[in-house]
Every structure is written in structure tokens, then in C-alpha cells.
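Problem 3 from the worked examples.
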Amino acid sequence: MSISFYQVSKTFYKTQLQQDIEHRLAAHREIIEEDFTSHTLHHVVVMERRGPESSFIIFDANFRVMDYSYPVDPERLIFYREWVSQVNELSQTQFVETIAHHIPHIWSAVPLKQNNVVVGYLFIDQDTGDFEQAKSKLLFISMIMALFSLLLSAIITIYLSKRWTDPLVKVRNSTREMAKGNFEVRLDAKGNDEIADLMKDTSSMAEQLKEYRDSRQQFLTNVSHDLRTPLTYMKAYAAILMEKTQLEKEAQEHATVIYQEAKRMERLVNDIFQLVKLDEGKYTIDFQEEDLVQLGKEILQKNKVEAENKTIQFTFSSSDPEIVAMVDRERFEQILLNLVTNAIRHTPENGTISLVIEQKPSIISITVHDTGEGIPNENLKHIWDRFYRVEKSRSTKHGGSGLGLAITKQLVALHNGEITVKSKVGEGTIFVIKLPNNMHI
């Protein structure tokens, strides 16, 4: 807009200047042609001297100077004659740069006629200094307009973008919190536009999800409590029946099955109860300095008998004889037990399970590697889901509840760490836990 304004204004001013000079010459020509005498010629020259400073010359038919407003340099007079000689019976006007990089001049000439015969020419050479000054002012005004427009548009853009994006950022952050399980989000919606509706709907969704989570947790808590008591009785009486030697062998076998299934159900109930506590944020972590090398050896020792029953070989290695970290011993022992027992469950006979603990400048890495069945790629992203079992390799015959890895991941997160998995069907699975090396820092 600023450039267009400048171009239009410059063209208009230039046209006005040209028309003004042509009208002056036309007026002079009418007067002279009515009374072609020296007195009239001199009168016209005097009028030009009183106007804007310019070189006004009256030529005869042979381009000799008859009169002039101001003396003219002979060399310049030659240029004037050459230019006027090209004028036909009509007037001619041209903007001319007489000196390079200098203010342009406007030259204009009209023929004088008597009885339709050209008897002379009126010529004017006027610099365009006023026009150039006006053009500079127009350029300056245009630049100011452009800067002002840019500044104004920038302010409006920032204002509108902030007004529009701030609520969207709040909605984005709220949805991220909701994805993490935090439904205590409230968005203050102002106005009646689409963004306000989105914020209201997001708040409503958070409330509904919170109600669903609370009701689910309450349900699981109640179920866990209600199942614990009958399971305790089932285990106790099954154990008594198993110890009675006078019972028939078939009855003892049935009692053994009841006892084993009761134990499995008890583990499932305990896992559910533990997940409920994790979801409610009631799971306390008591950080203490613990030697992970010693803890790792103890975990393998606890599972040694079960591994020997399947002729599975344990290997252990560490980068240092002692690697101390700030962990909750009971919870971290549960993490390693879950991974090791899971590896034993899914490693065939004569397989190998290795536990490697490495200390690095910023992290401590714990790796559990087995040579078991492996997990298909399409199932890897789901193994952290609750109650998820990979077909065949995670069947119920192994006794898994489908909650162990979900609990493990949450416990690792409570230790400010992360756990990753790599697996290949038929070759085995690798779980890697990375903890911050706070003791080293």
C-alpha cells in the first residue's frame, strides 16, 4: 500500500507539473499569435521572469534567439536548438537529465504560427527541484506509513496470537497432564467462542475421567479387600488338607491344586492392590544408599533353585565391586525380582539369564538379558499395559497376572529412572533400567 501510494502520488505530481508548464506555454502562444510584435514578445518574457525560475526562450523559424528570460550558456543553447528542431507542429514535453545524478529538468516547446506557417517556437527549461523535494517527502511519508503499518500489524498479530494460542497451550498442557494420569486440571473458559467451548469440554472430560478413575480404583480396592479374606481361608484349609496323611492321594492332589490356585489368586489380588496404591499416589518411596551389586547377587540367589529346576544358567557381572545408589530397597528388589522371575518363566531349559550392572558418570545401567522365547515387534509396545499377555509366550500356564511389568515400570519411574526393552523372537529379550547416578554427582 505504501509503495502504491508513493507511485500514484509521484505520477500525479509529475503529471500536474507537466500540465502546468504546457498550459503556460499554450497561454503565451495564444497571446503572441494574436499580436506577433516585439512588444508582446517582451511582455511574455517579463511574465516568465516573475514566475518560477526557468530558462524561457523565444526562437524564430530558423532557431535564432529572439528573446529570453535569462542569459543562456552558448553550449547549452546548442542542445536547446537541437531539441527544439525535432518539435513538429504540435507541442512536445520531456523530462531530461541535463547532468548525471542531478535534478532532472523538464523541457517543453510549442510552435508559433501565422497563417498556418511556423514562424517561431516557445521553449522553456525548468528544473524539477520542487518536484524532487515533494517526491522525497512522499518517499519519507511512505516509509513512515510502511513502518507504522508493520508495527501496528505486528502488535495486532502478537495480541491475537497470544489471545488465541494461550488458551490452546493451556489445553495442550492439560491434556498432557491427563495423559499422565493427572485429572486435577481445571480450565477457566472466558467467552462464547470455539476455544472457550474446547476449554469447557476439556475440563468436563477431565472431571469425567477423574470420576471414572476414582470409581475404578474404589472398585478394585473393594474387590481386593473382599477377595483377600476368602483366599486366606482357602489357603489355610488347603494347607491343612495337604498335611493330613490319612487322606487319599487324590484328595491330597486336589488340595494341592486348590492351594496353588489360591496362591496365584492371592498374587493377582496383591498386584491389583499395589497398582491401586500406585495410581492413588499413596505409594511411598524411602530412598536410602544401597549397594546394587550386593542386591543383584541376592536376587539371583533367591531364584537359584527355580532356575536349577529348569537347568537355566545365571551369570552376573558389574563394572565395579560396589555400586551405590539412592533407592528404596524393598521396591527395587521387587523390580529386579519381577524381571528375573519373568525371564525364568519364559526361558526354556538350558537357557541363560544374565544380570549386568554398570556405573557411568551420569547413570547406572541394570540389564536383564535372557535367551528365551522373545516378544514379537508388534507386541512390544503393549507389554507395559495392564493385564496384557503376548499370545503363547505370555499364556496363563506360566502363572503371570499380566500386571508385573506395569508395576515394574511405575516403580522405576518413582525412582526417577526409565526402563526399555528389546526383543527378538527365538533369541531372547533384554530389559534395561537406567537410574540417575546421584551418588557419583
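Problem 4, a separate protein:
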Amino acid sequence: MKVCDRLKLYIDKSGLKQKVIAEKSGFSENQMSQMLNDKRSISADELEIICNAMGTSPNEIYSIRSDEFASHEKRLA
């Protein structure tokens, strides 16, 4: 599972708003959207900044299991 997919899942499950995360992270809404939609890569430093803005850590993002993602995708379909 890609980092962008993990971030999107975490954001959705937490109820956080992408716009708020972008503002807290210092990214524009467009930059955040590009990162989350895999149109722009996310560096390790950027991941750390985004995680800090969400009150979590990269370890938490990487602990999301792929089966959680699959079940989440089924609910959205």
C-alpha cells in the first residue's frame, strides 16, 4: 500500500479535513491534494510534517494494515 493511500485512509478514519491538515502542514490545498492522489511524491520530511499536523507519527501511518484499506475501499464503492 502506498503512503498516499495510507494517509488518505488515516484522514478518512480520523474525520480530519484535508484543508485543515494542509494549513497546519504549511502546504497549499493543491499540494496536499496532489500528494494524496499520488500525483506528487511525499518525501520523508514532508510525511513527518503532515503527521505532526495530524497529531500522529509515520509509524502510526505505516501500521495501517492492507486489509483495513481493502475493507475501506469496499465501503466507498
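Solution to problem 4. The chain has six helices and no strands. Residues 3-14 form the longest helix (12 residues).
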